[in-house]
């Protein structure tokens, strides 16, 4: 690790339930607010539980020296974190991993979020809009109560929603409307359950080959910086560690043979 990825103790500034079971926390850290890039994550120590929790950097506010994480309560660690009050000190490690990269000349940026995949893509949208890019977000959720509020997106981002039960937006999976927007996009960035990437791999193959396409993988992580090999996957470039070599990968590298390992 270098001096930008040492464990630090930082104050929790706010905690709110943004929508059903999903919490937004703002944390004070000049180091992360000024150094983090879209797609990177932090490892958060949750009370006395053995393993840190990997959580994407969701937003940054360099002028306030703070950043935000978005997380769902899915176990004892995140349940503990969701109950914390402003002022408590958290021990975190980060920023870690690589990042989404805007391709030179790309003007129209298409973001595809499945479920909590919006967590790193909000930051990507923030940076793209600051650079004057046109941004469209496709977000899919199981039901209306699980939809990320469009009012929390950066100004100017166009948002289209799908739900599996039809309670909000189109009644389908987000992958089913993707083909309507691929032609517009100069570059695609996606994050969601790993199973989301397989349907994409079976459609529009020729068109995808000429589009820069980056995806962020969700994986269980032990250490967060490549020491434990617990998040290793097969790629077109050999075995890679999601925490160290990712979490952002070229779409074609991870689905070179419609990889069943992701």
Describe the model:
The protein is of the alpha/beta class. It folds into two domains: 7-96, Translation factors (Elongation Factor Tu (Ef-tu), domain 3, Beta Barrel); 108-254, Nucleotide-binding domain of ferredoxin-NADP reductase (FNR) module (Rossmann fold, 3-Layer(aba) Sandwich). The protein is 18% helix and 35% strand. The strands form three sheets. Strands 10-9-8-7-11-12-15 form a seven-stranded mixed β-sheet. The chain has a six-stranded antiparallel β-barrel with strand order 1-2-5-4-3-6. The radius of gyration is 18 Å and the shape is globular.
Counted up, domains total 2
CATH homologous superfamily (4th level) name of the largest domain: Nucleotide-binding domain of ferredoxin-NADP reductase (FNR) module
CATH architecture of the largest domain: 3-Layer(aba) Sandwich
Mean pLDDT: 89
- What order do the helices and strands follow? EEHEEEHEEHEEEHEHHEEEHEH
Report, as a whole number of angstroms, the end-to-end distance: 26 Å
Q: Outline the low-pLDDT stretches.
A: none
Strand content: 25-35%
- Helical segment count: 8
Query: Biggest sheet, open or closed, and with what strands and sense?
Result: 7 strands, mixed
- Stated plainly, the CATH topology of the largest domain is called Rossmann fold
Name of the CATH class of the largest domain: Alpha Beta
* Radius of gyration, CA atoms, in whole angstroms: 18 Å
- The total beta strand count reads 15
Structural topology:
Blueprint: E1 7-19, E2 22-28, H1 30-35, E3 41-44, E4 53-61, E5 66-72, H2 76-82, E6 89-96, E7 108-114, H3 118-130, E8 134-141, E9 158-163, E10 170-171, H4 179-182, E11 187-191, H5 197-201, H6 205-208, E12 213-216, E13 232-235, E14 238-241, H7 242-245, E15 248-250, H8 251-254
Parallel strand pairs: 7-8, 7-11, 8-9, 9-10, 11-12
Antiparallel strand pairs: 1-2, 1-6, 2-5, 3-4, 3-6, 4-5, 12-15, 13-14
